[in-house]
User: What shape does this take?
Amino acid sequence: MNPGSFSVRLPAAVLPGRPDRAAAPPAAGLPGPANEAGGRTASFPLIVLLTSLGTLAVAAAYAAGREGWPYLGALYWPGLLLVYVPIALRAYSSRLTRPAEGFALLLLLWVQQTLIFRMYSPLALKFPDELQHWRGTVNVVHSGTLDQANYSLPIAVHYPGLEALGAAVSASTGLSVTATAFIVAAVLRLLVTCVLYVLFLRISTDWRVATLACVIYAAGPHYLFFDAMYIYGSLALPFLLLAVWAVRLLRSPGRAAGRWAVLLIAIGVVTVSHHITSFVMVALLGSLAAAGLSRPRPDRELRPLVAWLVATAAVLGWSLLAAGDLVSYLRPVAAELWHSMAGLLHGRLGAAAAGAAPNAVPLGEPLYERVATIGALGILAFLVLWGSRRLWRERHAEPWALPLIGGALMIFVGVALRIAVSDGSELSGRASTFIYIPVALVAAVALRGMRPRDSGRHGAGRRSLALVGSAAPALAAAVILMGGIASGWPPYWDRLPGPYLVSGFERSVDPQGLAAARWALGALGPGHRWAEDSAAYTLLATIGDQNTVRDVGVLFDGKGADAAARFFVTHEDIQFLAIDLRDSTQLPASGAYFPGQPNAVRYRSPLPRTDLEAPGQVAGMSRIYDSGDIFLYDLRGSAYER
Amino acid sequence: MSGERDRLIRSGWLIAVLVAVPLLGVVDAVGPRPVAALGFVANLTVLGMASGRVLLGRAGLSAVERATVALALPIAVLVLGTIAAGALGFHLDRRLWAVLVALAAEAAAAGVLSQGRPDESREPRARPRARPRVRPPAGRVLLWGGSLAAAGGVLAVAVALSGWTAAHQTYPAFSALSAIRMGSTERSVQIQLTSEETAATRFIVTIAVGRARPESSTFRLAPGVTWRKTVPVPRSAAVRVVAYRGSAPRVPYREVHLAAAGAADGG
Assistant: This one.
């Protein structure tokens, strides 16, 4: 294909599937419709019904988790698959003949996945990351300014895009901040769906590829939960995509000034909303600029270069002038990466790398989830290689081909991160939000080239093969979704809501912890320095608006006010201590009892109760709160301060 | 889309929108909440549709692209406008956001009006041929209607099931006892007991100040109710508060204590 054939042929509503390829006949093993129109109209409502049943199955699994009903929890995976697989199969099917139906499938997927996410905790925010931005939004609504300290996520004050949006909606509609967070997060997820589709459509000029790519992206590790949350990355992501879409739009004739304005607006929103996404934007636009400049002179493109310069200036300016804490915020992550790389050089991989104890007891995920994770990565890697080869062969002269292929091949970097870095699964999961954009598009290009073409009359043997062939896409879709979720969020022990878990993120948010955090804010006021375990770290900093401290294990070692503890208390200016006796009854689900604990996943037994009670024996300590499991102490004037 | 169906290119419609936007802004700023929210949403809608039209026009964009821009731009205006207002020292409240959205919507609508009829609609269009209306077969209508209604019902059950089980999820019952010194001189202590038991519970609370004989209070608390008491206590005296349940009056249930000033020095 020559470069000219890659030009945009819009509007999409009139785009043909692929002009060079006749519509494929019905897939083998499935009854053909009486006519094309009949086939179109019959399938969509049935898919709506099927996927709704899947959502109901997930709701039943959630209910089983909360109520302790036996067996029903097993409906979780079938429910998720019932939502995803029919939509994926329809998007892949040659019977999908209208762009409107393709886009309707994406909207259906958005509805079902949004419900699945929110039904985990339908009445309150429980995810720690969401609670951090809930606190930031409450601060804006109450103070009327954007510079109120957010102790739960100090860097968010310098990236106040989401808080500005949430506060505007909450104050203008009278909705609670929690309800606002539900609505804003759902709208942002809808925006991601739309922008992803139009971006893929602009790049591929094939609505089938765009539809398939969006469906593949929806199986990414963090798509279903983490990226759907009310967090600053969820605001920045659609505007990152919008910026790239606007750059792409600049290539076609039309109102250049307006397109530049949209591009600048998108760059602005990303810049003030999320640090990592803004860095990704600079890298992405940089790769597009380099690709534009690398073309021979008559076709050389300068507009991506200008866009990249503007984005770089905006991000640099904001980072230096408004977000001075950024370096200190990102330093621990960079140090962790560096240590892992150094460990790699010394032959240590993954959990055995620096930062993890050699005799660690990892909380293993079920075997079938590990298999699904490997299977999903294998399928996607295969599709990426296939699609890259096809793109290179057919469209290598197109300036965006190389960045697209390069971005898709980053899936192997994600795999390497997962294997090599001690906290690799979280890092690769976070990176997947961006890496899966080109991965999904290139994989969709590959799938578009291998769709079933012939289902004519066969002999019995061939018919069996055709049946197997028609089952393969369903199996592949199931593996891609299962593997994506298994390698993303939530972790396997957190998939269903349920009773309290020690250090279990959202599973640690319970009425007793909430009551303690609310009491701390009401009785003491905001901003006091606290030492605490992981669960209290989240709740005291968000609900309680307290200034919590990380890596406080030295106060929980049973040695009372020894020299190390006294130094820590005075050095960190700690005023209060929160102790949860439940830490002596369970191992930490997430691997660490305390936030920022360097030697996580080292425990073979729960913390001794005597260690937890030791601070209470220190002279001059005041126990100011007792709810049975949770004790709050006032350290001021105690032996810790001597 | 034909010029006849695109109402925004008719100047009559645009003038109506230009008049309505400030009125909706006023409603948004000072109206009672549900009505104000309508003004807010209406102006955001105008802002999205009109600003997309002003910046990008309609030619060459698909319907999904236009809808995407219409969704993204109001969000961007709220984000960037709020941050700009905050940087300029404005107090961020409902009125400011009402003015911000109304001004942006008015400017966008005025921009559409100033552009006149867009290029693509200036040229005389051939009147679209009326397509013969084909009534869909009854079976297909039944299939669509039945499936969608069933799906809606299934989703409603799913949401209700989640909401109900989340609202009624059982956690271990607890009660929280607390004591803190009050005021700048810390001459009094506020004691508080909140019951989150499963049923109304009788409590006995004893308060011992220094070496004095403890005084006790007996009361009954319904779930979710808080009992409070303030007692005068010099900073130099320690306080010990113990709560017992009526069902086990000799077994301490909750206990808090405040150290006397200088207790860590052995004083």
